[in-house]
């Protein structure tokens, strides 16, 4: 019996020496050849850029739309085009789809990311990966005719009509207001129209008010030469947190980080602010300390939830290998050696 244990120890020690020798040899070969290293770099440099398909609607002026020459343009498009120019690793193309198909295309892998003035909500945060910070920050406001007094809130507009799209964040906000404030309820008028039409319907007198983001209001005023009035909403976060994001699949974290690095450079250099001035007439890209802190906390929580305990991962791997019949692989035996030696009688080791 002792001879068997001694033989086993010798075999294990031999395997250990062989494994360590092979490992050292591999490290020496990797370090000792400059030409081998340069070949790897050359291969990396010779790789084709990854083709990135962005899903968008082309109907969200001024963020993405078709100009008079039928060219896709807008704030989002200019930002993405500049990211494309700054990053050699990727090459961006666009695919137009209807809004309901954006996330279906992202889920299926048809799109690598989607861009369409997309804000955040709990469902999207749970399922997708967002750019770390929004690339543009616009706010939902109450929009009325200029005949109305300034700085109105919902209490001041009790009983007046609001034109909104059904099942939109704005309509749900008003429905919640009416539920909680029945004595100050507003008259919700549901209409299946685009933002431009609804905002112009306020100007034309069809509705007393609506709620939309400032980017749409400004575009309508400039495009149609009309003037309306905006009123800030105190609890705007109840509608939707301000800010528009690029949204990715969760497994594309490397792509998100790469594009975020270019976005950070553009923000630091003032390029985002310049593009915002072109399309929005003002700088709507500045991040507040509160927004930075909130998004940093969301990212930290996401990373913490995604972390794997290395010891547990190694244990799971060992169990998997044992179940698949790989427990007697040399590397597995080497890992078992200290435990085996500890169990052997000292006389055997001698």
Automatic annotation (TrEMBL):
Give me the ranges of the annotated region Disordered: 304-325
Which stretches are tagged as biased composition: Acidic residues? 308-319
Q: Which residues form the signal peptide?
A: 1-22
Pfam hit, one: SBP_bac_3
Query: Where in this chain does the record put each Solute-binding protein family 3/N-terminal domain?
Result: 51-283
Q: Which UniProt keywords apply?
A: Signal
Could you tell me which InterPro entries the record lists for this protein? Solute-binding_3/MltF_N
**Gene3D superfamilies in alphabetical order:** Periplasmic binding protein-like II (3.40.190.10)
> The organism sits in which domain of life?
Bacteria
Q: Which PANTHER family match?
A: AMINO-ACID-BINDING PROTEIN YXEM-RELATED, MEMBRANE-BOUND LYTIC MUREIN TRANSGLYCOSYLASE F
The name on file for this protein is: Solute-binding protein family 3/N-terminal domain-containing protein
Q: What organism is this sequence from?
A: Alloiococcus otitis ATCC 51267
């Amino acid at each position: 019996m002792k001879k068997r244990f001694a033989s086993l120890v010798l075999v294990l020690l031999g395997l250990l020496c062989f494994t360590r020798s092979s490992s050292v040899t591999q490290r020496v070969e990797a370090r000792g050849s400059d030409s081998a290293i340069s070949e790897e770099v050359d291969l990396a440099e010779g790789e084709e850029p990854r083709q990135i398909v962005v899903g968008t609607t082309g109907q969200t002026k001024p963020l993405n739309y078709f100009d008079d020459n039928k060219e896709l343009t807008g704030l989002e498009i200019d930002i993405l085009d500049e990211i494309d120019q700054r990053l050699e690793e990727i090459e961006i193309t666009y695919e137009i789809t209807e809004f309901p198909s954006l996330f279906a295309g992202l889920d299926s892998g048809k799109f690598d990311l989607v861009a369409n003035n997309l804000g955040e909500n709990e469902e999207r945060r749970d399922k997708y990966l967002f750019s770390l910070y929004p690339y543009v920050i616009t706010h939902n406001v109450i929009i009325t005719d200029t005949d109305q007094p300034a700085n109105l809130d919902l209490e001041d507009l009790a009983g007046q009509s609001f034109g909104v799209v059904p099942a939109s964040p704005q309509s749900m906000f008003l429905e919640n207001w009416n539920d909680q404030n029945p004595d100050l309820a507003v008259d919700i008028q549901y209409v299946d129209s685009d933002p431009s039409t609804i905002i112009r319907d306020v100007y034309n007198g069809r509705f007393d008010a609506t709620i939309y983001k400032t980017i749409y209001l400004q575009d309508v005023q400039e495009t149609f030469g009309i003037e309306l009035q905006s009123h800030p909403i105190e609890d705007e976060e109840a509608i939707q947190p301000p800010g528009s994001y690029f949204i990715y699949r969760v497994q594309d974290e490397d792509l998100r980080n790469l594009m975020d690095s270019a976005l950070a450079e553009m923000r630091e250099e003032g390029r985002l602010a310049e593009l915002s001035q072109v399309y929005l007439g003002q700088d709507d890209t500045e991040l507040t300390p509160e927004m930075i802190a909130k998004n940093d906390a969301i990212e930290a929580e996401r990373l913490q939830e995604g972390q794997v305990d290395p010891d547990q991962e190694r244990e799971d791997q060992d169990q998997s290998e044992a179940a698949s019949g790989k427990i007697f692989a040399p590397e597995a035996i080497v890992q078992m050696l200290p435990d085996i030696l500890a169990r052997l009688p000292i006389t055997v080791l001698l």
